[in-house]
Amino acid sequence: MARSDVQLMLDVKAGDDASFEFLLQKYRTPLVSFLFGMVRDAATAEDLAQEVFLRIYRARKHYSPSAKFTTWLFRIATNLALNSVRDNRHRKLEVSLDAPADDEDATPREVPGSEMRIDEHMVERDRSEFIRRVIGSLPEKQRVAVLLHKYEEMDYGEIARTLDCSESALKSLLFRAYETLRVQLAPLVANPIAHRSKQGRQS
Amino acid sequence: MKCKDVSKELIGYLDRRANSAERREVEEHLVVCAACRRRTEEFRELSSVLDQLPVREPSAGFDARVRERVAAEPPTKWFHWLIPQPRLLFSMALLVALGVWMARFPQDDPGAYRTTAPTEQEDFNAIKDLGVLENYDVVTKFDALSELISTPAQQTEPQRVERTRND
């Protein structure tokens, strides 16, 4: 019979390193995927994922199964990701304040707002990158909620605990997030099949 | 159910996490509201667009780096629980300070909170003074002595009787 995550973690606490290896194999991809969605940089996502596993290992002696293992795991990951995003934003702000003001014609990094810029974007980048960018442009909490809800398939209670909010607040948060995505991804949402077939012909 | 209420339950309705009562309410609303019906359809399409995002796999060296960092961790000391945590240390210091502060106040009635039985020596001391206490009791209630102690009123009474006899 397969051991639950909590049981695996209790075994790690008891000194069984093989159980830690099992947890690593089970959650390495979801964790890296989630963190990549948060920070949009492969190297940073992997560094943060390593840090999450390391923190779990360090905390093994004090572990008590008060919540689901995944809630704990993604809570650590969320906190690290948000700190990284904020640090990065500060660094970017410092750079832009120090940089000469001659780059006004430079292409904006954020998600385009007009249809023409969306088209340009679609030419430049592939479909996945565009979706990632749109998700990445969501406010922090909405981004976490969408990534955990859509891609990690966590239930509302777990996501609410990860984000420290009520389930009712989470439902509103998710609705606002998906509403933004619906608008931002309108070119793909309006006719996804036609777009896919067009892409298929191009490739 | 109004459009505003439906919007809150719509995601749960689409991902099938809403309970049967919520689903029924949403469905009843969708029958009569074309705008929400359209939005529901758009959300459904959005969901299939988001499904196309591929999973991001970690790089080949990821596991090795995690193992490396875990192996570099110092071993947990068996006496780690003896090392006081800062919060615990602060709480203990606070308790000691409180105890010292309270000890400065004298106790009004030390016997009031006495819970232990009296010692043999204390019993002896109590019995030792019993004779004196009894003597005191006899002396204070001795009738003959009370006659010797005459009050001013008692002294004036025979003199008044003597005076009336002379008259």
Record the SSE blueprint:
The complex is a heterodimer of chains A (203) and B (167).
Chain A: H1 5-13, H2 17-39, H3 42-58, H4 69-98, H5 115-124, H6 127-136, H7 140-151, H8 156-163, H9 167-184, H10 186-190, H11 192-202
Chain B: H1 3-14, H2 20-32, H3 34-51, H4 62-71, H5 86-103, H6 120-128, H7 130-140, H8 143-148, H9 152-166
Short description:
The complex is a heterodimer of chains A (203) and B (167). By secondary structure, chain A is mostly helical. Chain A is 75% helix and 0% strand.
Average per-residue pLDDT of chain B, rounded, comes to 77
Assembly annotation: heterodimer
Largest beta-sheet details of chain B: none
Q: How big is the Rg of chain B?
A: 48 Å
| Through-space gap between termini of chain B | 120 Å
Q: What is the H/E string of chain A? A: HHHHHHHHHHH
Beta percentage of chain B is under 5%
How many helical stretches of chain A? 11
Question: What structural class results from the helix and strand content of chain B?
Answer: mainly alpha
Characteristics:
heterodimer; A: about 200 residues; mainly alpha; globular; B: about 170 residues; 9 helices
Written description of the protein model:
The complex is a heterodimer of chains A (203) and B (167). Chain A has 203 residues and is mainly alpha-helical. Chain A has 11 helices and no strands. Chain A has helices at 5-13, 17-39, 42-58, 69-98, 115-124, 127-136, 140-151, 156-163, 167-184, 186-190, 192-202. The model of chain A is unreliable at 100-110 and 192-203 (pLDDT under 50). Chain B is mainly α and 167 residues long. Helices cover 67% and strands 0% of the residues of chain B. Chain B has helices at residues 3-14, 20-32, 34-51, 62-71, 86-103, 120-128, 130-140, 143-148, 152-166. The longest helix of chain B has 18 residues, at 34-51. Chain B is elongated.
